[in-house]
């Protein structure tokens, strides 16, 4: 005869493995996601027959959109006046240790005067390493 009482255990759901899986998925998506720096600024670069690929670490980026608005390192300049662009570029230059390369990415429909103003201000700031960003045309001769 079996006189022991039959004890029923309470069933518990452990959330620890579920939390571990959620954290692993979060880490996976954080590591594999890429971010586009210029996703908000729409610029249609002019095309050339051969566009050399030049990657430098110490670069100051100046974007000019089709309306002639300036963006210094992704931040929009308040207005299109040369004095304002001068102040924004000089403040951005404070972040760099030495004379950085300036990359001007002007929209193909941008006003020519806006590009010349940017080049003039770069000269006034003492930036000697200047390049213009372009895209390579699909049709080559």
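^ Assign residues to that structure.
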């Amino acid at each position: 005869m079996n006189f022991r009482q039959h004890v029923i255990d309470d069933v518990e759901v452990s959330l620890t493995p579920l939390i571990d899986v959620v954290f692993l998925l979060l880490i996976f998506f954080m590591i594999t996601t890429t971010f586009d720096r210029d996703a908000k600024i729409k610029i249609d670069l002019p095309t050339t027959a051969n566009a050399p690929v030049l990657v430098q670490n110490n670069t100051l980026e100046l974007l000019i959109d089709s309306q002639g608005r300036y963006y210094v390192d992704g931040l929009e300049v308040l207005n299109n006046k040369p004095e304002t662009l001068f102040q924004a570029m000089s403040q951005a230059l404070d972040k760099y240790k030495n004379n950085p390369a300036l990359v001007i990415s002007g929209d193909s429909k941008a006003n020519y005067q806006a590009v010349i103003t940017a080049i003039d201000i770069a000269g006034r700031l003492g930036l000697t390493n200047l390049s213009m960003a372009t895209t390579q045309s699909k049709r080559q001769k």
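The mean pLDDT is 82.
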